[in-house]
C-alpha cells in the first residue's frame, strides 16, 4: 500500500509541475539568443499616445498561476486522503459527526512511574482499570451513579 500511495503522490506532483511549467514560461519574456546584439530599451512613451497603460512594472507571474498551483495541491491532497482513508470511510466521517465522548475518564492515580489506576465511565458503568507498560487489567466494575457526569 505504501508504494502505491507514494507513486500516486509522485504522479500528481509531476502532473502539476508539467502543467505549470509551460504556463509559467508563457508569462516570461523570451531570452535573447547568445551573441545577439543587445539593444537598449527605449525610454518611456509620451503621455499623449492613446495607449492602455499597465500599473507599475512587469509582473513576475500572473495571479492565476498561483491559483492553478494551489488547486493542483488541493486536488493532490484530496486524492491522498481518499486513497489513505478510503472513499467510504471519508464519506461516513463527513455524514455522521460524533455526538459525544464514548469513554469518560473520571479519575486517575499514578502508583509507580510504570503503573497507574484509572476510573473510567463507559456505557453506564464505572470501570477501575490497572495500567502498566505492557497491559491493562480490569480490577472492578459497577453501574455508574446516575447523578455524576451525565451533564456533558
UniProtKB/TrEMBL annotation:
BP GO annotations: bacterial-type flagellum organization
Keywords: Cell membrane, Membrane, Transmembrane, Transmembrane helix
Location(s), subcellular: Cell membrane
Principal location class: membrane
CC annotations in GO: membrane
Xref: InterPro entries: Flagellar_biosynth_FliO
Region Disordered, annotated ranges: 35-56
Chain ranges passing through the membrane: 63-82
Protein's name according to its UniProt entry: Flagellar biosynthesis protein FliO
Organism listed in the record: Ramlibacter humi
